[in-house]
Specification:
Chain lengths: 212, 261
């Protein structure tokens, strides 16, 4: 078993031993609401992208939502509320309960390099699900930042007049569209890795459903 | 195909016939939208409603879209001006955009054209182009943002709509100014009164210092830099001040009616 996991579990031992719950109920609830909201946003977003593509490709209609631009916009601007409210609940509780600090910090370069090597050589253990390795910490912290960026860049292209200061932060309307697209690509990339790993370590999926 | 071709009566314009027939059929894109909504089983998680009844998905989305109208109206600040740009930023050529080709766009004779003024106004007289040209005009270089996502910067010159509404004694406490256009199928669009009174909302007569070309809505376009492009009607023939929501060409098909930017 990896010594890395063991080291970290000692740091969070009190929480882990007094209560076997790995993922508290609020984490599980916001996680699955987020999964639904993200899927709706991404699939409708692809249909919106198709109306005026930024690159030389479009998304197959079979993986888009809404049927046409008007329908996709309706889905996108409806799921937006779900995503934003759920995201705010997640960020608030993550900060207030200290979960972000306990689970995601610190992230060190040595730790990330070491764990990446361990992962690539098959030596990274998932024996203790209550602690994240450095690669997980980096990815989870990173995707939270991307999540904030995609919402802000989305607001910037939705309201480039009323929120023009925000649009200016992204370098203007056109630039904000690209930021929004690349954040989507990062989230899709993250999701693919996330789902593959969850299937490879089924007990992590169980923990995200029943908590332990 | 050959059999279908034989069905056409000689002397009938096939293109016109097909176009008329298409109009009689249900809107294809709308049907696609409904199908798209119905296929999403996950919706049950959100609403508890039966997704096999696809209309419930559509009506839920329509309700949220109306809620979004209200949120955008609340976000709208009448004093916030749309960003303006230098002349060097103007997109040339500025794109023609329509749901029809340019050759099908209204071709209006400015001498015959009159702007009809209806509804909650004191003076309902029609206005000729010459009369409108004599009103004080100003120029603005702003970004036009299409609902599709693309954008282009243009230079528009015309009369403040708020000035005109004041001139005809419009009830500016009414909810909407509803525009009708010369397009064959009667393009129309409602504009909420706060947006109509915005200082940059313009009755536009010139584009890039030239008389408004046919492509951009000759003889008069309503330029609303605080709205998406489809809320900027071209080839306008009448405006009506009203408290009734009368729908619009794209609004009726599902585009969010406020569509502010």
């Amino acid at each position: 078993m990896s010594s890395i996991s063991a080291d970290h579990s000692s740091a969070t031992a009190p929480a882990a031993t007094t209560n076997r719950i790995i993922q508290p109920a609020w984490v599980r609830i916001v996680h699955w609401i987020n999964a639904v909201a993200m899927i709706l946003m991404i699939m409708s977003g692809w249909q919106i992208y198709n109306a005026s593509p930024l690159f030389s490709f479009t998304f197959s209609r079979s993986i888009t939502l809404g049927g046409w631009l008007g329908g996709a916009l309706m889905w996108h601007f409806a799921a937006m509320w779900l995503l934003m409210v759920n995201g705010l609940v997640y960020l608030t509780l993550g900060l207030v309960t200290g979960r972000f600090r306990k689970k995601l910090l610190p992230i060190t370069v040595d730790g990330v390099v070491g764990d990446t090597k361990a992962a690539l050589t098959g030596k990274l253990s998932h024996a203790d699900l209550s602690t994240y390795n450095y690669v997980q910490k980096l990815l989870y912290a990173g995707i939270i930042v991307v999540g904030i960026l995609i919402v802000l860049s989305g607001l910037a292209i939705w309201k480039p007049v009323q929120l023009q200061w925000l649009t200016a932060v992204f370098g203007g309307y056109e630039a904000a569209r690209y930021v929004h697209f690349f954040c989507m690509a990062a989230i899709v990339g993250f999701t693919v890795i996330h789902v593959v790993l969850a299937l490879l370590v089924p007990k992590s999926l169980r923990a995200m459903i029943i908590g332990r | 195909m050959g059999r279908i071709r034989r069905l056409f009566i000689p002397g009938v314009d096939k293109q016109l016939l097909v176009r008329d027939a298409t109009k009689l059929m249900p809107e294809l894109s709308r049907r696609r939208f409904i199908a798209g909504g119905a296929s999403l089983g996950a919706l049950t998680l959100l609403t508890g409603c039966d997704v096999t009844d696809s209309f419930s998905a559509e009506s839920m989305l329509t309700q949220i879209s109306k809620f979004n109208d209200a949120v955008q109206a609340a976000m709208f600040n009448p004093n916030t001006l749309a960003p303006t740009f230098p002349e060097s930023a103007i997109t040339r050529p500025f794109p023609f955009n329509g749901y029809y080709a340019l050759e099908d766009a209204p071709d209006i004779d400015g001498k015959d054209w009159k702007l009809e003024v209806r509804g909650l106004v004191e003076n309902k007289k029609s206005w000729t182009l010459d009369e409108l040209y004599k009103l004080p005009q100003e120029n603005q270089i702003t970004r036009h943002i299409c609902v599709e996502g693309w954008s282009a910067i243009g230079s528009w010159t015309g009369v403040r709509l708020s000035h005109f509404l004041q001139l005809v004694g419009a009830d500016t406490k009414a909810k909407y100014v509803w525009f009708n256009c010369a397009d064959v199928d009667g393009y129309n669009s409602p504009l909420d009164m706060p947006s109509a009174l915005h200082p940059q909302t313009q009755m536009t007569f010139r584009f890039d210092n030239q008389i408004l070309p046919r492509a951009y809505g000759y003889p008069m376009k309503i330029r609303v830099p605080t709205k998406l492009g489809f809320k900027n009607p071209k080839y306008v023939v009448s405006l009506e001040v009203t408290n009734d929501y009368k729908g619009g060409y794209w609004e009726d098909q599902g585009y969010n009616s406020f569509s502010g930017s």
